[in-house]
Amino acid sequence: MNMPVINFKYGDLCSLLGQKVPHEVLIEKIPLMGADMHQTDGECEDMSVEFFPDRPDLFSVEGLARALRAFLGIGPSVKRYDVEDSEYVATVEPSVLGIRPHFACAVVKDLEMSEDVIRSMMELQEKLHMTIGRRRSKLAIGIHDLDKVSSPFRYTAVIPDEVSFVPLNHTEKMDLDGILRSHDKGRMYAHLLEGMERYPVIFDRNDNILSFPPIINGALTTVTTNTKNVFVDVTGNDWKAVKGALDIVATALAERGGRICRVRMEGEQQGYSPDLTEKPYTISMKECNRFLGLDLKKEGMEEAISKMGMDVAISGDGVTVSIPPTRLDIMHKVDVFEDVAVGYGFEHFGGPYTTGQTVGKLGDITSMSDRVRDVMIGLGFTEVTTLTLSNRRDEFELSGLPVKTSTCITNPITEDHTCLRSYLMPSLMRILRHNKHRDLPQRIFEIGFVSDEHHTVPHLCGMATASKTSFTEIRSVTDAVMREMNIDCEVSPCNYRAFVDGRGAFISSGGKTIGFFGEVSPKVVTDYDITHPVMMFEIGLSDIMCEKAGRLF
Q: What is the CATH number of the domain that holds 411?
Protein backbone atom coordinates (compact mmCIF):
# COMPACT_ATOMS: atom_id res chain seq x y z
CA MET A 1 0.00 0.00 0.00
CA ASN A 2 1.37 3.44 -0.94
CA MET A 3 2.06 5.94 1.80
CA PRO A 4 -0.60 8.70 1.73
CA VAL A 5 0.72 12.18 0.93
CA ILE A 6 -1.12 15.28 2.12
CA ASN A 7 -0.54 18.64 0.42
CA PHE A 8 -1.35 21.92 2.14
CA LYS A 9 -0.43 25.56 2.53
CA TYR A 10 1.93 26.65 5.30
CA GLY A 11 -0.38 29.55 6.18
CA ASP A 12 -3.40 27.25 6.34
CA LEU A 13 -1.62 24.93 8.77
CA CYS A 14 -0.55 27.82 10.99
CA SER A 15 -4.12 29.16 10.98
CA LEU A 16 -5.37 25.77 12.21
CA LEU A 17 -2.60 25.61 14.82
CA GLY A 18 -3.62 29.01 16.18
CA GLN A 19 -0.14 30.50 15.88
CA LYS A 20 2.72 30.81 13.42
CA VAL A 21 5.27 28.05 13.77
CA PRO A 22 8.58 28.55 11.91
CA HIS A 23 9.18 26.39 8.84
CA GLU A 24 12.34 24.92 10.33
CA VAL A 25 10.44 23.75 13.44
CA LEU A 26 7.81 21.99 11.34
CA ILE A 27 10.46 20.39 9.12
CA GLU A 28 12.26 19.14 12.22
CA LYS A 29 9.29 17.99 14.32
CA ILE A 30 6.79 16.50 11.84
CA PRO A 31 9.11 13.59 10.88
CA LEU A 32 9.41 12.71 14.57
CA MET A 33 5.66 11.94 14.56
CA GLY A 34 6.21 9.16 12.00
CA ALA A 35 6.16 11.06 8.71
CA ASP A 36 8.39 12.19 5.90
CA MET A 37 8.61 15.80 4.78
CA HIS A 38 9.26 16.36 1.10
CA GLN A 39 8.80 18.97 -1.60
CA THR A 40 9.47 21.59 1.05
CA ASP A 41 12.21 24.12 0.43
CA GLY A 42 13.01 26.89 2.87
CA GLU A 43 10.12 29.32 3.26
CA CYS A 44 7.94 27.64 0.60
CA GLU A 45 4.19 28.14 1.11
CA ASP A 46 3.30 24.76 -0.40
CA MET A 47 4.11 21.84 1.90
CA SER A 48 3.81 18.09 1.50
CA VAL A 49 3.93 15.35 4.15
CA GLU A 50 3.93 11.58 3.67
CA PHE A 51 2.36 9.57 6.52
CA PHE A 52 2.32 5.90 7.35
CA PRO A 53 -0.97 4.22 6.32
CA ASP A 54 -1.72 3.22 9.92
CA ARG A 55 -2.60 6.83 10.91
CA PRO A 56 -5.71 7.75 8.87
CA ASP A 57 -6.46 10.51 11.40
CA LEU A 58 -3.46 12.38 9.91
CA PHE A 59 -4.56 12.16 6.27
CA SER A 60 -5.59 15.84 6.20
CA VAL A 61 -4.10 19.15 7.24
CA GLU A 62 -6.86 19.38 9.87
CA GLY A 63 -5.79 16.11 11.47
CA LEU A 64 -2.14 17.09 11.26
CA ALA A 65 -2.87 20.39 13.01
CA ARG A 66 -4.74 18.60 15.81
CA ALA A 67 -1.81 16.23 16.37
CA LEU A 68 0.80 19.00 16.15
CA ARG A 69 -0.92 21.16 18.76
CA ALA A 70 -0.45 18.38 21.30
CA PHE A 71 3.00 17.34 20.07
CA LEU A 72 4.36 20.91 20.16
CA GLY A 73 2.54 21.85 23.36
CA ILE A 74 0.33 24.47 21.69
CA GLY A 75 -2.78 24.72 23.86
CA PRO A 76 -4.48 21.77 25.61
CA SER A 77 -3.01 18.36 24.82
CA VAL A 78 -6.42 16.71 24.36
CA LYS A 79 -8.93 18.01 21.80
CA ARG A 80 -12.53 17.01 22.44
CA TYR A 81 -15.49 17.89 20.26
CA ASP A 82 -18.97 18.72 21.48
CA VAL A 83 -21.76 16.86 19.72
CA GLU A 84 -25.02 18.80 19.82
CA ASP A 85 -28.55 17.44 19.77
CA SER A 86 -30.53 18.06 16.60
CA GLU A 87 -33.80 17.22 14.87
CA TYR A 88 -32.13 15.18 12.10
CA VAL A 89 -33.13 11.53 11.61
CA ALA A 90 -31.82 8.75 9.38
CA THR A 91 -33.43 5.36 8.82
CA VAL A 92 -31.62 2.19 7.76
CA GLU A 93 -34.01 -0.14 5.98
CA PRO A 94 -33.73 -3.98 5.98
CA SER A 95 -33.19 -4.11 2.20
CA VAL A 96 -29.55 -2.96 2.51
CA LEU A 97 -28.46 -5.57 5.05
CA GLY A 98 -27.30 -8.06 2.42
CA ILE A 99 -25.63 -5.37 0.29
CA ARG A 100 -23.81 -2.72 2.36
CA PRO A 101 -25.27 -3.11 5.83
CA HIS A 102 -23.52 -0.39 7.84
CA PHE A 103 -24.44 3.28 7.77
CA ALA A 104 -23.12 6.16 9.86
CA CYS A 105 -23.77 9.87 9.41
CA ALA A 106 -23.31 13.30 10.95
CA VAL A 107 -24.36 16.90 10.43
CA VAL A 108 -21.76 19.68 10.66
CA LYS A 109 -23.03 23.27 10.72
CA ASP A 110 -21.72 26.83 10.44
CA LEU A 111 -18.78 26.08 8.18
CA GLU A 112 -16.86 28.66 6.18
CA MET A 113 -16.05 26.78 3.01
CA SER A 114 -13.14 27.88 0.85
CA GLU A 115 -11.40 26.26 -2.09
CA ASP A 116 -8.68 25.04 0.30
CA VAL A 117 -11.23 23.46 2.64
CA ILE A 118 -13.09 21.74 -0.20
CA ARG A 119 -9.83 20.46 -1.68
CA SER A 120 -8.71 19.16 1.71
CA MET A 121 -12.00 17.31 2.27
CA MET A 122 -11.90 15.76 -1.21
CA GLU A 123 -8.33 14.55 -0.68
CA LEU A 124 -9.23 13.18 2.76
CA GLN A 125 -12.17 11.27 1.26
CA GLU A 126 -10.03 9.68 -1.43
CA LYS A 127 -7.22 8.75 0.97
CA LEU A 128 -9.69 7.07 3.32
CA HIS A 129 -11.30 5.31 0.34
CA MET A 130 -7.98 3.96 -0.86
CA THR A 131 -6.56 2.93 2.55
CA ILE A 132 -8.98 1.77 5.24
CA GLY A 133 -11.76 1.72 2.62
CA ARG A 134 -9.88 -0.78 0.42
CA ARG A 135 -10.83 1.13 -2.75
CA ARG A 136 -14.39 1.65 -1.46
CA SER A 137 -15.03 -2.07 -0.89
CA LYS A 138 -15.11 -1.59 2.91
CA LEU A 139 -16.50 1.94 3.03
CA ALA A 140 -17.53 4.91 0.92
CA ILE A 141 -17.92 8.51 2.10
CA GLY A 142 -20.25 11.27 0.91
CA ILE A 143 -20.22 14.94 1.91
CA HIS A 144 -23.37 16.89 0.95
CA ASP A 145 -24.74 20.41 1.09
CA LEU A 146 -27.34 19.93 3.83
CA ASP A 147 -29.40 22.97 2.84
CA LYS A 148 -30.34 21.35 -0.50
CA VAL A 149 -32.12 18.41 1.17
CA SER A 150 -34.44 17.68 4.09
CA SER A 151 -34.52 15.24 7.00
CA PRO A 152 -35.45 12.44 7.57
CA PHE A 153 -32.93 10.59 5.42
CA ARG A 154 -33.47 7.03 4.26
CA TYR A 155 -30.80 4.43 3.43
CA THR A 156 -32.42 1.72 1.34
CA ALA A 157 -31.91 -0.60 -1.64
CA VAL A 158 -33.75 -0.12 -4.93
CA ILE A 159 -34.23 -1.85 -8.29
CA PRO A 160 -31.58 -0.26 -10.57
CA ASP A 161 -33.75 0.76 -13.53
CA GLU A 162 -36.53 2.23 -11.38
CA VAL A 163 -34.47 5.10 -9.96
CA SER A 164 -32.66 7.92 -11.75
CA PHE A 165 -30.89 11.12 -10.71
CA VAL A 166 -28.22 13.56 -11.90
CA PRO A 167 -24.83 12.23 -10.72
CA LEU A 168 -21.92 14.44 -9.73
CA ASN A 169 -20.18 16.15 -12.68
CA HIS A 170 -23.12 15.44 -15.01
CA THR A 171 -26.12 17.51 -16.11
CA GLU A 172 -28.61 14.84 -17.16
CA LYS A 173 -30.46 12.17 -15.22
CA MET A 174 -29.22 8.59 -15.41
CA ASP A 175 -30.60 5.39 -13.92
CA LEU A 176 -28.31 3.33 -11.70
CA ASP A 177 -27.36 0.78 -14.34
CA GLY A 178 -26.65 3.63 -16.74
CA ILE A 179 -24.27 5.18 -14.22
CA LEU A 180 -22.39 1.88 -13.90
CA ARG A 181 -22.09 1.66 -17.69
CA SER A 182 -21.37 5.29 -18.62
CA HIS A 183 -20.08 7.32 -15.67
CA ASP A 184 -16.32 7.31 -15.02
CA LYS A 185 -16.80 6.40 -11.36
CA GLY A 186 -19.50 3.90 -12.29
CA ARG A 187 -17.18 1.95 -14.56
CA MET A 188 -14.39 2.14 -12.01
CA TYR A 189 -16.41 0.73 -9.10
CA ALA A 190 -19.15 -1.31 -10.81
CA HIS A 191 -17.49 -4.54 -9.67
CA LEU A 192 -18.42 -3.72 -6.05
CA LEU A 193 -22.11 -4.24 -6.91
CA GLU A 194 -21.64 -7.14 -9.29
CA GLY A 195 -24.35 -9.79 -8.88
CA MET A 196 -26.62 -7.52 -6.82
CA GLU A 197 -30.30 -7.33 -7.77
CA ARG A 198 -30.78 -4.10 -5.80
CA TYR A 199 -28.42 -1.16 -5.26
CA PRO A 200 -28.05 1.03 -2.15
CA VAL A 201 -29.30 4.62 -2.30
CA ILE A 202 -29.68 7.47 0.23
CA PHE A 203 -32.91 9.51 -0.11
CA ASP A 204 -34.11 12.58 1.73
CA ARG A 205 -37.69 13.38 2.83
CA ASN A 206 -38.68 14.45 -0.70
CA ASP A 207 -37.08 11.42 -2.40
CA ASN A 208 -34.13 13.46 -3.61
CA ILE A 209 -31.09 11.23 -3.99
CA LEU A 210 -28.04 12.28 -2.00
CA SER A 211 -25.85 9.35 -2.92
CA PHE A 212 -25.56 6.06 -4.76
CA PRO A 213 -22.91 4.41 -2.59
CA PRO A 214 -20.23 3.29 -3.15
CA ILE A 215 -20.32 4.78 -6.66
CA ILE A 216 -21.19 8.49 -6.84
CA ASN A 217 -22.97 11.34 -5.05
CA GLY A 218 -25.81 13.34 -6.55
CA ALA A 219 -25.13 16.66 -8.28
CA LEU A 220 -27.92 18.23 -6.19
CA THR A 221 -25.87 18.23 -2.99
CA THR A 222 -22.52 19.32 -4.46
CA VAL A 223 -20.49 21.23 -1.86
CA THR A 224 -19.39 24.73 -2.96
CA THR A 225 -17.82 27.78 -1.34
CA ASN A 226 -21.38 28.91 -0.53
CA THR A 227 -22.10 25.78 1.54
CA LYS A 228 -22.57 26.44 5.25
CA ASN A 229 -23.95 23.14 6.57
CA VAL A 230 -23.05 19.63 5.46
CA PHE A 231 -24.39 16.12 5.86
CA VAL A 232 -21.72 13.39 5.98
CA ASP A 233 -22.61 9.79 5.23
CA VAL A 234 -20.43 6.68 5.37
CA THR A 235 -21.65 3.29 4.17
CA GLY A 236 -19.83 -0.01 4.06
CA ASN A 237 -19.30 -3.60 5.10
CA ASP A 238 -17.07 -3.09 8.16
CA TRP A 239 -18.60 -1.21 11.08
CA LYS A 240 -15.30 -0.24 12.71
CA ALA A 241 -13.99 1.23 9.48
CA VAL A 242 -17.31 2.99 8.73
CA LYS A 243 -17.52 4.59 12.18
CA GLY A 244 -13.84 5.51 12.19
CA ALA A 245 -14.04 7.21 8.80
CA LEU A 246 -17.08 9.23 9.89
CA ASP A 247 -15.33 10.33 13.10
CA ILE A 248 -12.24 11.40 11.16
CA VAL A 249 -14.19 13.43 8.58
CA ALA A 250 -16.57 15.01 11.11
CA THR A 251 -13.76 16.09 13.45
CA ALA A 252 -11.73 17.43 10.50
CA LEU A 253 -14.69 19.66 9.62
CA ALA A 254 -14.98 20.66 13.28
CA GLU A 255 -11.33 21.79 13.13
CA ARG A 256 -12.57 24.25 10.50
CA GLY A 257 -14.98 25.76 13.01
CA GLY A 258 -18.00 23.58 12.31
CA ARG A 259 -20.48 22.41 14.95
CA ILE A 260 -21.05 18.65 14.99
CA CYS A 261 -24.69 17.61 15.40
CA ARG A 262 -25.85 14.08 16.09
CA VAL A 263 -28.39 12.26 13.93
CA ARG A 264 -30.95 9.92 15.46
CA MET A 265 -30.67 6.49 13.83
CA GLU A 266 -33.80 4.41 13.32
CA GLY A 267 -34.72 1.14 11.65
CA GLU A 268 -32.00 -1.50 11.54
CA GLN A 269 -29.55 0.73 13.45
CA GLN A 270 -30.69 2.29 16.68
CA GLY A 271 -28.95 5.08 18.55
CA TYR A 272 -27.19 8.31 17.63
CA SER A 273 -24.43 9.13 15.18
CA PRO A 274 -21.68 10.18 15.50
CA ASP A 275 -20.50 8.76 18.82
CA LEU A 276 -17.19 10.41 19.75
CA THR A 277 -16.80 8.63 23.08
CA GLU A 278 -13.20 7.86 24.04
CA LYS A 279 -12.29 4.33 25.05
CA PRO A 280 -9.99 3.51 27.99
CA TYR A 281 -7.03 1.18 27.49
CA THR A 282 -4.71 0.10 30.31
CA ILE A 283 -1.08 -0.95 29.96
CA SER A 284 1.67 -1.84 32.41
CA MET A 285 4.26 0.88 32.99
CA LYS A 286 6.97 -1.69 33.75
CA GLU A 287 6.18 -3.68 30.59
CA CYS A 288 6.17 -0.51 28.48
CA ASN A 289 9.54 0.61 29.86
CA ARG A 290 11.00 -2.86 29.36
CA PHE A 291 9.66 -3.02 25.80
CA LEU A 292 11.15 0.38 24.89
CA GLY A 293 14.34 0.10 26.93
CA LEU A 294 13.40 3.16 28.99
CA ASP A 295 13.00 3.98 32.66
CA LEU A 296 10.20 6.53 32.58
CA LYS A 297 8.58 7.49 35.87
CA LYS A 298 5.00 8.63 36.29
CA GLU A 299 5.63 12.21 35.18
CA GLY A 300 7.64 11.17 32.13
CA MET A 301 4.98 8.65 31.06
CA GLU A 302 2.21 11.24 31.45
CA GLU A 303 4.14 13.80 29.41
CA ALA A 304 4.89 11.35 26.58
CA ILE A 305 1.27 10.22 26.25
CA SER A 306 -0.12 13.76 26.54
CA LYS A 307 2.07 14.82 23.59
CA MET A 308 0.17 12.24 21.53
CA GLY A 309 -3.14 14.00 22.25
CA MET A 310 -4.51 11.57 24.85
CA ASP A 311 -5.54 11.77 28.47
CA VAL A 312 -3.71 9.45 30.88
CA ALA A 313 -4.32 8.30 34.46
CA ILE A 314 -1.63 6.35 36.33
CA SER A 315 -2.25 4.28 39.43
CA GLY A 316 0.63 2.15 40.58
CA ASP A 317 1.87 0.18 37.58
CA GLY A 318 -1.35 0.67 35.62
CA VAL A 319 -1.39 3.34 32.92
CA THR A 320 -4.91 4.01 31.60
CA VAL A 321 -5.05 5.91 28.32
CA SER A 322 -8.19 7.45 26.80
CA ILE A 323 -8.16 6.49 23.12
CA PRO A 324 -9.77 9.15 20.84
CA PRO A 325 -12.36 7.80 18.37
CA THR A 326 -10.18 8.91 15.45
CA ARG A 327 -7.23 6.72 16.48
CA LEU A 328 -8.11 3.59 14.53
CA ASP A 329 -4.51 2.41 14.72
CA ILE A 330 -4.55 1.61 18.45
CA MET A 331 -5.64 -2.02 18.69
CA HIS A 332 -3.00 -3.58 20.98
CA LYS A 333 -0.81 -2.61 23.89
CA VAL A 334 2.23 -2.30 21.61
CA ASP A 335 0.40 0.49 19.76
CA VAL A 336 0.29 2.43 23.03
CA PHE A 337 3.96 1.58 23.60
CA GLU A 338 4.70 3.09 20.19
CA ASP A 339 2.88 6.29 21.12
CA VAL A 340 4.94 6.50 24.32
CA ALA A 341 8.09 6.17 22.20
CA VAL A 342 6.95 8.91 19.79
CA GLY A 343 5.92 11.20 22.65
CA TYR A 344 9.20 10.57 24.48
CA GLY A 345 11.07 11.43 21.31
CA PHE A 346 12.96 9.17 18.96
CA GLU A 347 15.82 11.65 19.11
CA HIS A 348 16.31 10.78 22.80
CA PHE A 349 16.80 7.07 22.24
CA GLY A 350 20.24 5.53 22.09
CA GLY A 351 23.45 6.20 23.96
CA PRO A 352 27.20 5.86 23.64
CA TYR A 353 28.58 2.93 21.71
CA THR A 354 29.76 0.08 23.90
CA THR A 355 33.48 -0.64 23.89
CA GLY A 356 33.00 -4.27 24.92
CA GLN A 357 33.55 -6.98 22.34
CA THR A 358 30.97 -9.61 21.58
CA VAL A 359 31.09 -12.77 19.51
CA GLY A 360 28.19 -13.62 17.24
CA LYS A 361 27.26 -16.79 15.45
CA LEU A 362 24.63 -17.94 13.01
CA GLY A 363 21.39 -19.41 14.39
CA ASP A 364 20.68 -23.09 13.89
CA ILE A 365 18.06 -22.49 11.19
CA THR A 366 20.38 -20.12 9.29
CA SER A 367 23.29 -22.57 9.52
CA MET A 368 21.15 -25.41 8.21
CA SER A 369 19.72 -23.22 5.43
CA ASP A 370 23.22 -22.30 4.27
CA ARG A 371 24.25 -25.97 4.23
CA VAL A 372 21.12 -27.00 2.30
CA ARG A 373 21.54 -24.09 -0.12
CA ASP A 374 25.04 -25.27 -1.03
CA VAL A 375 23.74 -28.81 -1.58
CA MET A 376 20.91 -27.68 -3.88
CA ILE A 377 23.13 -25.37 -5.93
CA GLY A 378 25.61 -28.21 -6.26
CA LEU A 379 22.84 -30.39 -7.67
CA GLY A 380 22.13 -27.81 -10.37
CA PHE A 381 19.09 -26.04 -8.89
CA THR A 382 18.53 -22.26 -8.93
CA GLU A 383 17.26 -20.61 -5.74
CA VAL A 384 14.06 -18.54 -5.82
CA THR A 385 12.27 -16.52 -3.14
CA THR A 386 8.48 -16.24 -3.16
CA LEU A 387 5.81 -14.54 -1.06
CA THR A 388 4.73 -16.19 2.19
CA LEU A 389 1.16 -15.12 1.40
CA SER A 390 -0.96 -17.46 -0.68
CA ASN A 391 -4.59 -18.55 -0.95
CA ARG A 392 -6.47 -21.69 -0.03
CA ARG A 393 -7.33 -22.53 -3.65
CA ASP A 394 -3.67 -22.74 -4.68
CA GLU A 395 -2.57 -24.32 -1.40
CA PHE A 396 -5.06 -27.17 -1.23
CA GLU A 397 -7.43 -27.37 -4.21
CA LEU A 398 -5.03 -27.01 -7.12
CA SER A 399 -1.99 -28.56 -5.45
CA GLY A 400 -3.65 -31.80 -4.39
CA LEU A 401 -1.90 -31.59 -1.01
CA PRO A 402 -3.76 -32.31 2.27
CA VAL A 403 -5.72 -29.45 3.85
CA LYS A 404 -4.05 -27.93 6.91
CA THR A 405 -5.17 -25.36 9.45
CA SER A 406 -4.09 -22.15 7.72
CA THR A 407 -3.53 -18.70 9.17
CA CYS A 408 -5.98 -16.46 7.28
CA ILE A 409 -6.00 -12.69 6.77
CA THR A 410 -9.12 -10.95 8.01
CA ASN A 411 -9.16 -8.22 5.36
CA PRO A 412 -7.11 -9.42 2.37
CA ILE A 413 -6.34 -6.88 -0.35
CA THR A 414 -6.49 -9.42 -3.17
CA GLU A 415 -7.97 -12.88 -3.67
CA ASP A 416 -4.48 -14.25 -4.38
CA HIS A 417 -3.19 -13.39 -0.91
CA THR A 418 -5.68 -14.52 1.72
CA CYS A 419 -3.60 -16.75 4.03
CA LEU A 420 -0.09 -17.77 4.99
CA ARG A 421 1.18 -20.63 2.88
CA SER A 422 1.18 -24.16 4.32
CA TYR A 423 3.51 -25.60 1.68
CA LEU A 424 6.26 -24.28 -0.61
CA MET A 425 5.13 -26.44 -3.53
CA PRO A 426 2.28 -24.13 -4.75
CA SER A 427 4.61 -21.12 -4.71
CA LEU A 428 7.15 -22.91 -6.90
CA MET A 429 4.41 -24.14 -9.25
CA ARG A 430 3.45 -20.50 -9.79
CA ILE A 431 7.08 -19.70 -10.65
CA LEU A 432 7.07 -22.46 -13.28
CA ARG A 433 3.76 -21.17 -14.66
CA HIS A 434 5.17 -17.68 -15.13
CA ASN A 435 8.26 -19.13 -16.84
CA LYS A 436 6.62 -21.83 -18.97
CA HIS A 437 7.82 -20.16 -22.18
CA ARG A 438 11.47 -20.27 -21.06
CA ASP A 439 13.98 -22.90 -22.11
CA LEU A 440 13.85 -26.35 -20.51
CA PRO A 441 14.85 -27.94 -18.23
CA GLN A 442 14.07 -25.64 -15.29
CA ARG A 443 15.31 -26.66 -11.83
CA ILE A 444 14.43 -24.39 -8.92
CA PHE A 445 14.37 -24.59 -5.12
CA GLU A 446 13.32 -22.48 -2.16
CA ILE A 447 14.16 -22.49 1.53
CA GLY A 448 11.38 -20.59 3.27
CA PHE A 449 8.90 -20.50 6.08
CA VAL A 450 5.42 -22.00 6.01
CA SER A 451 2.57 -21.91 8.52
CA ASP A 452 1.88 -25.13 10.44
CA GLU A 453 -0.89 -24.90 13.05
CA HIS A 454 -0.25 -21.13 13.19
CA HIS A 455 3.48 -21.62 13.80
CA THR A 456 6.10 -20.70 11.19
CA VAL A 457 8.51 -23.52 10.34
CA PRO A 458 11.26 -23.75 7.68
CA HIS A 459 10.79 -25.99 4.64
CA LEU A 460 12.91 -26.94 1.64
CA CYS A 461 11.25 -27.55 -1.72
CA GLY A 462 12.98 -28.56 -4.94
CA MET A 463 11.15 -28.69 -8.27
CA ALA A 464 12.06 -29.44 -11.87
CA THR A 465 10.22 -29.36 -15.18
CA ALA A 466 11.43 -30.80 -18.46
CA SER A 467 10.11 -32.45 -21.59
CA LYS A 468 10.43 -35.75 -19.73
CA THR A 469 10.63 -36.52 -16.01
CA SER A 470 10.63 -39.70 -13.95
CA PHE A 471 10.13 -40.90 -10.40
CA THR A 472 13.64 -42.37 -10.48
CA GLU A 473 15.16 -38.95 -11.19
CA ILE A 474 13.41 -37.14 -8.34
CA ARG A 475 14.17 -40.10 -6.04
CA SER A 476 17.87 -39.77 -6.85
CA VAL A 477 17.78 -35.99 -6.18
CA THR A 478 16.02 -36.53 -2.84
CA ASP A 479 18.49 -39.25 -1.84
CA ALA A 480 21.40 -36.98 -2.71
CA VAL A 481 20.02 -34.15 -0.55
CA MET A 482 19.48 -36.45 2.43
CA ARG A 483 22.89 -38.05 2.00
CA GLU A 484 24.71 -34.72 1.82
CA MET A 485 22.88 -33.61 4.96
CA ASN A 486 23.86 -36.85 6.71
CA ILE A 487 20.25 -37.88 7.28
CA ASP A 488 19.19 -41.52 7.45
CA CYS A 489 15.76 -41.84 5.90
CA GLU A 490 13.22 -44.31 4.62
CA VAL A 491 10.57 -43.98 1.91
CA SER A 492 7.03 -45.33 1.77
CA PRO A 493 4.14 -44.94 -0.70
CA CYS A 494 2.30 -41.59 -0.69
CA ASN A 495 -1.32 -41.39 -1.84
CA TYR A 496 -1.54 -37.60 -2.22
CA ARG A 497 -3.48 -36.69 -5.34
CA ALA A 498 -0.70 -34.23 -6.06
CA PHE A 499 1.25 -37.15 -7.52
CA VAL A 500 0.79 -39.68 -10.30
CA ASP A 501 -0.61 -42.90 -8.83
CA GLY A 502 2.24 -45.06 -7.59
CA ARG A 503 4.83 -42.33 -8.21
CA GLY A 504 4.73 -40.45 -4.92
CA ALA A 505 6.51 -41.27 -1.65
CA PHE A 506 6.81 -40.10 1.94
CA ILE A 507 10.22 -39.42 3.48
CA SER A 508 10.62 -40.63 7.09
CA SER A 509 13.45 -40.22 9.58
CA GLY A 510 13.52 -41.42 13.18
CA GLY A 511 10.02 -42.82 12.80
CA LYS A 512 8.58 -39.42 11.78
CA THR A 513 7.41 -38.28 8.34
CA ILE A 514 9.51 -35.28 7.37
CA GLY A 515 8.54 -34.79 3.71
CA PHE A 516 7.37 -36.19 0.39
CA PHE A 517 8.46 -36.39 -3.25
CA GLY A 518 7.30 -37.69 -6.61
CA GLU A 519 6.03 -36.97 -10.11
CA VAL A 520 3.32 -34.31 -10.07
CA SER A 521 -0.06 -35.42 -11.41
CA PRO A 522 -0.90 -34.23 -14.95
CA LYS A 523 -4.15 -32.74 -13.61
CA VAL A 524 -2.27 -30.64 -11.06
CA VAL A 525 0.21 -29.59 -13.74
CA THR A 526 -2.54 -28.45 -16.13
CA ASP A 527 -4.55 -26.80 -13.33
CA TYR A 528 -1.52 -24.56 -12.74
CA ASP A 529 -1.44 -23.90 -16.50
CA ILE A 530 1.97 -25.56 -16.92
CA THR A 531 2.67 -27.33 -20.20
CA HIS A 532 5.43 -29.83 -19.27
CA PRO A 533 5.83 -32.61 -16.68
CA VAL A 534 6.93 -31.61 -13.18
CA MET A 535 8.66 -33.49 -10.37
CA MET A 536 9.27 -32.18 -6.85
CA PHE A 537 10.16 -32.87 -3.25
CA GLU A 538 9.44 -30.95 -0.03
CA ILE A 539 11.05 -31.48 3.39
CA GLY A 540 10.45 -29.92 6.80
CA LEU A 541 13.83 -28.63 7.99
CA SER A 542 12.76 -28.18 11.62
CA ASP A 543 11.93 -31.90 11.80
CA ILE A 544 15.44 -32.74 10.60
CA MET A 545 16.97 -30.37 13.14
CA CYS A 546 15.10 -32.05 15.99
CA GLU A 547 16.13 -35.54 14.85
CA LYS A 548 19.69 -34.97 13.77
CA ALA A 549 20.93 -31.70 15.23
CA GLY A 550 23.93 -33.40 16.80
CA ARG A 551 25.08 -34.96 13.51
CA LEU A 552 24.63 -32.10 11.09
CA PHE A 553 27.56 -29.88 11.85
A: 3.30.930.10
